[in-house]
User: Which sequence fits this backbone?
């Protein structure tokens, strides 16, 4: 009878015992980042931020008696390698969820593999709307898309100056087009139109001619559909030609590198984002920066903060899920988060049964005295 009772008890074990990536003492998370490709500086910092979060969580006792284990793969910012990395993570490593993956093209190409396996796809480091649309119960996004960011920064800029001529200088690809669509919508809502739009090809280094045409159009505000290096080149070109005009950007330009690349020409530039660059004057951020430097012997930055944030947000969902962890309980746990406060600052985030974007709220930052400073918070435009 004892063997029969033991067999019955074994069969009655909770479903969590069969949940991929979940054992009695461990939850396995996976990600793929650029560790050796063109954005390796970005990817390595994000990976370190994620490692720091895992170490802190485990040092504090884990989550419901389980440690986190993070498996990181190098996608080299290559779509094919991102797919291969995802296949390894969900097949060989048997992760419970993917979190904080990097590279829009690679993330989107690998997304179907994750959903087909029935695993949570969490907070990829991309502002692509596909991270949360169309709706899927397993897709959770952290960042508002570029179309919303552009609408937000333009709506804020024309709020107190309704006659200011607004122009765009941006890339002629999907990235730049998303930014243009957001700006057009904000202008249409204000019953206005853009004064001028200039597009350039990816890889462009010289922007004098395009800026000259925008200057002739008497633009009062120029929205940049640009990355950090492109924005820096544009700011320096405008400074060299003696054109003083207000310029603004999206999260693609909110980075410490802009200051180093553009130098004094960056002064006055503004951009919106959702995760602030850690401020050494803030007590919490200063402690985090010290911990990061002690572990990795380098300075923490916004990219490391984004990686840290992604794991901490996933951990919040795991706590809400309870000890009986399954994909269903985890999804319910994330959906129960309403006003989660990011550990390093920024707008509160949350989810719900029909809500998969953490927040559309942003802050506006400005370059002043050689550093980024947040000048306005609580900005939001549209209803993504």
Assistant:
């Amino acid at each position: 009878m004892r063997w029969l009772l033991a067999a019955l008890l074994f069969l009655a074990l909770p479903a969590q015992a069969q949940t991929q990536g979940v054992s009695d003492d461990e939850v396995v998370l996976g990600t793929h980042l650029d560790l050796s490709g063109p954005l390796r500086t970005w990817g390595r910092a994000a990976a370190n931020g994620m490692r720091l979060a895992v170490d802190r969580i485990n040092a504090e006792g884990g989550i419901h008696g389980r440690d986190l284990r993070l498996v990181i793969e190098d996608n080299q910012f290559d779509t094919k390698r991102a797919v291969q990395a995802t296949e390894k993570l969900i097949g060989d490593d048997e992760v419970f969820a993917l979190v904080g993956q990097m590279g829009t093209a690679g993330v989107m190409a690998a997304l179907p593999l994750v959903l087909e396996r029935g695993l949570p796809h969490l907070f990829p480091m991309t502002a692509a709307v596909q991270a949360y649309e169309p709706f899927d119960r397993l897709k959770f996004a952290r960042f508002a898309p570029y179309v919303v960011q552009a609408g937000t920064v333009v709506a804020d800029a024309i709020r107190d100056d309704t006659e200011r001529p607004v122009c765009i200088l941006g890339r002629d690809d999907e990235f730049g087009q998303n930014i243009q669509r957001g700006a057009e919508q904000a202008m249409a809502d204000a019953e206005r139109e853009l004064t001028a739009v200039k597009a350039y090809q990816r890889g462009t280094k010289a922007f004098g001619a395009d800026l000259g045409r925008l200057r002739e159009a008497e633009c009062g505000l120029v929205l940049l559909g640009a990355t950090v290096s492109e924005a820096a080149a544009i700011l320096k070109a405008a400074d060299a030609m003696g054109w003083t005009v207000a310029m603004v950007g999206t999260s693609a330009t909110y980075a410490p590198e802009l200051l180093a690349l553009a130098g004094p020409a960056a002064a006055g530039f503004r951009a919106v984002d959702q995760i602030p660059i850690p401020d050494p004057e803030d007590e919490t951020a200063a402690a985090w920066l010290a911990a990061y430097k002690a572990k990795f012997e380098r300075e923490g930055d916004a990219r490391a903060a984004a990686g840290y944030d992604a794991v901490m947000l996933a951990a919040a969902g795991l706590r809400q899920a309870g000890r009986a962890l399954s994909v269903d309980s985890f999804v319910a746990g994330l959906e129960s988060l309403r006003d989660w406060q990011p550990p390093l600052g920024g707008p509160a985030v949350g989810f719900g049964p029909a809500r998969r974007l953490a927040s559309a709220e942003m802050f506006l930052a400005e370059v002043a005295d050689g550093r980024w400073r947040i000048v306005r918070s609580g900005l939001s435009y549209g209803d993504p």
User: Anything to note?
Assistant: The longest helix spans residues 40-59. The radius of gyration is 22 Å.
